[in-house]
């Protein structure tokens, strides 16, 4: 079986502090895989610059000039992690056999790449990197993360537990992913919809090598809201159920009030009336807010705006005639 062309896809946003060390470790990993014959010499490391405000793109450009193993994709502006990741995957879809996406902060154990490739050779089209434990997380981070996954499952969003965006995807899986046209991206929920044979690799997540996390609590909450409203309609159904329950309770209260009226037991209930008005009013506004989120998603989807725009692509490929011949003989994976 011929060696596969692997592209590592790494979204970057203001990663100048960690990028040199990340490049060094990933280069060593690819060279090790190449020596073992597990990947093709045309394999590359693709850094996707997501509109960074620091010197991230300058560093990526310098890495590319120093060694062809490094490729760079510069987006026209910041489009968010999920769009940047998709931009990298879609850009290399037709020039590679398999991709592995990971973050630039070196928290994902790159030694898990060997097992991912082994499962790919055994027939898996998608292999998920799954955290075995959260020993490096604070109690708050661990609690919110676990709550996030359980809440998403409760609302009908199919995600892989303790999996972020560290995953292997074959060209076949990437082509299937390209058929999904959502503008509101939540890849952790979309990729499981692709299907095909999948596998998992467990690893221990490390502490960030340098720099600050790009996902503080505010962004994590926004990310969760994006995932829920993009992939599930259960919140709207819950509003319907809640409305039905309140209607039933209102009817019962109405019957009770009429009975008390005819029995002559009516008493001025200022407190209960005020509380009822505030409670129902709050529920109405909350329900309108949820419905508004979905209407906003529909509004954005109907515009069919591009999910990303590429400003520059730095990539060096060699042995083109041989690669085209390999493409014609690609039946072992398709």
In brief, what are we looking at here?
By secondary structure, the chain is an alpha/beta fold. It has helices at residues 19-35, 56-66, 81-92, 112-121, 139-154, 171-177, 187-194, 217-231, 234-262, 270-303, 320-328, and strands at 6-12, 44-49, 70-75, 98-101, 126-131, 163-170, 198-203, 310-314.
Structural class: alpha/beta
Q: Provide the gyration radius in Å.
A: 25 Å
How does CATH name the architecture of the largest domain? Alpha-Beta Complex
Q: How many structural domains?
A: 2
Provide the residue-averaged pLDDT.
76
Percentage of residues assigned to helices: 40-55%
* CATH class membership of the largest domain: Alpha Beta
What does this entry look like structurally?
By secondary structure, the protein is an alpha/beta fold. The protein folds into two domains: 239 residues, Spore Coat Polysaccharide Biosynthesis Protein SpsA, Chain A; 70 residues. It contains eleven helices and eight strands. The longest helix has 34 residues. The chain is elongated. The C terminus is likely disordered.
């Amino acid at each position: 079986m011929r060696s596969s062309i692997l592209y590592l896809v790494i979204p970057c946003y203001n990663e100048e502090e960690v990028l040199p060390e990340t490049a060094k470790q990933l280069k060593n990993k690819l060279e090790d895989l190449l020596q073992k014959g597990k990947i093709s010499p045309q394999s590359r490391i693709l850094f996707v610059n997501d509109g960074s405000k620091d010197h991230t793109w300058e560093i990526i450009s310098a890495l590319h000039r120093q060694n062809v193993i490094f490729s760079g994709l510069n987006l026209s502006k910041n489009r968010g992690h999920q769009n940047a990741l998709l931009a990298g995957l879609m850009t290399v879809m037709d020039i590679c056999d398999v991709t592995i996406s990971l973050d630039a902060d070196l928290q994902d154990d790159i030694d898990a790449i060997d097992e991912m490739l082994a499962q790919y050779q055994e027939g898996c089209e998608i292999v998920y990197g799954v955290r075995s434990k959260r020993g490096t997380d604070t109690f708050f981070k661990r609690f919110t993360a676990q709550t996030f996954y359980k809440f998403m499952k409760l609302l009908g969003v199919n995600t892989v537990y303790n999996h972020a965006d560290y995953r292997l995807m074959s060209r076949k899986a990437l082509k299937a992913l390209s058929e999904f046209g959502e503008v509101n991206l939540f890849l952790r929920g979309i990729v499981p919809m692709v299907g095909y044979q999948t596998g998992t690799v467990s690893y221990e997540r490390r502490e960030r090598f340098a720099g600050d996390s790009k996902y503080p609590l505010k962004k994590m909450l926004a990310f969760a809201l994006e995932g829920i409203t993009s992939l599930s309609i259960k919140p709207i159904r819950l509003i319907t159920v809640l409305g039905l329950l309140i209607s039933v309770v209102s009817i019962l209260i109405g019957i009770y009030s009429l009975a008390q009226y005819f029995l002559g037991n009516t008493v001025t209930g200022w407190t209960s009336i005020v509380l009822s008005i505030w409670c129902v009013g709050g529920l109405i506004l909350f329900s309108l807010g949820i419905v508004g989120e979905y209407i906003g998603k529909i509004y954005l989807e109907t515009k069919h705006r591009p999910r990303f725009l590429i400003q520059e692509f730095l990539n060096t490929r060699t042995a083109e005639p041989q690669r085209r011949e390999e493409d014609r003989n690609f039946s072992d994976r398709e």
